[in-house]
Design goal:
about 130 residues; mainly alpha; about 0% strand
């Protein structure tokens, strides 16, 4: 049962970070192309997510906060690669069905942000906040 509770907290904390990521991309897209906007939005979510994970999900742990932040960054860079690849692929697929490029990108980014959730949970549990 503790694992389910922790995973539930992870989903809530990660969901709030994903929302910060997803919503901030619309702001960045006002000034930048799609992929750079996804990348900057990723860092908004990254900072918010680290704070939420450290405080609410994986409290404690034996590593120093700076080590946790470093590992958190590395795990999430891997997640960024997955997010960008899935976002671009889904946006391209959506463009065959949805004629609006902005909506295609929003659909792609939403699915892309959600795609690395299981990988991230286990990596943070076993590496970042162990």
């Amino acid at each position: 049962m503790p694992m389910i509770n922790q995973f539930s907290k992870f989903i809530l904390a990660g969901g709030s970070a994903a929302a910060a990521n997803f919503l901030s991309r619309f702001l960045f897209s006002q000034f930048l192309p799609y992929v750079p906007s996804i990348t900057l939005a990723f860092f908004v979510g990254l900072i918010w997510g680290f704070v939420m994970m450290r405080v609410f999900v994986f409290s404690g742990g034996s590593a120093t906060p700076s080590r946790q932040a470093s590992v958190y960054l590395l795990v999430n860079i891997a997640g960024l690669a997955v997010t960008v690849a899935v976002s671009v692929m889904v946006a391209r697929i959506a463009s065959f069905v949805v004629p609006d490029a902005k909506l295609d990108e929003a659909i792609g980014h939403l699915i892309g942000v959600a795609s690395p959730v299981l990988l991230s949970f286990y990596a943070h549990k076993k590496l970042t906040f162990r």
